[in-house]
Design a protein that fits this description.
It holds the Pfam family Chromo. InterPro entries: Chromo-like_dom_sf (IPR016197), Chromo/chromo_shadow_dom (IPR000953), Chromo_domain (IPR023780). This is Chromo domain-containing protein. A hairpin with a 7-residue loop joins strand 1 and strand 2. This protein is an alpha+beta fold. The protein has a single domain, classed as OB fold (Dihydrolipoamide Acetyltransferase, E2P). The strands form two sheets. A three-stranded antiparallel beta sheet has the order 3-4-5. Helix 2 packs across helix 3. The radius of gyration is 17 Å and the shape is elongated. The longest helix is centred in the last third of the chain and has 10 residues. It is about 30% helix and about 25% strand.
Length: about 120
């Protein structure tokens, strides 16, 4: 680890090359039979060393940009705040898409989905 977000990686096969990558470019390794549950995958998707998302709630549109009210794990509801939907899609794409799909009947979420152009 070079910094919190920059890491050296080494290939597991010859020539065993060592390269430097930002953490956002790394993909989670999954080996079958290791009991990786959906909850564990969700936890990994949330984790970036900062706050962890407890749940996504309301949607609003401000100046043509959608925002989602984020409830943070370990913080009171009063400490929730609005995050740009585009940031959530970048930071927690699996969780964000799953939440959007589960709430697509909500007109505000449906508008967000249409604007962001994802299924």
């Amino acid at each position: 680890v070079i910094t919190d977000h920059v890491m050296e990686t080494q290939q597991l096969v010859p020539p065993y090359e060592v390269t430097v990558h930002h953490a956002c470019r790394l993909k989670m390794y999954h080996e079958g039979g290791r009991e990786v549950t959906e909850d564990l995958e969700a936890q990994i998707a949330f984790g970036d060393g900062g706050f962890h998302v407890k749940r996504l709630d309301e949607v609003r549109c401000v100046d043509g940009r959608h925002q989602v009210l984020v409830k943070w794990l370990g913080l009171d509801d009063e400490e929730s705040f609005w995050e740009p939907a585009a940031n959530l899609l970048d930071d927690i794409p699996v969780v964000f898409r799953k939440w959007a799909a589960a709430n697509k009947e909500n007109p505000a979420v449906a508008a967000l989905i249409k604007t962001m152009d994802f299924p």
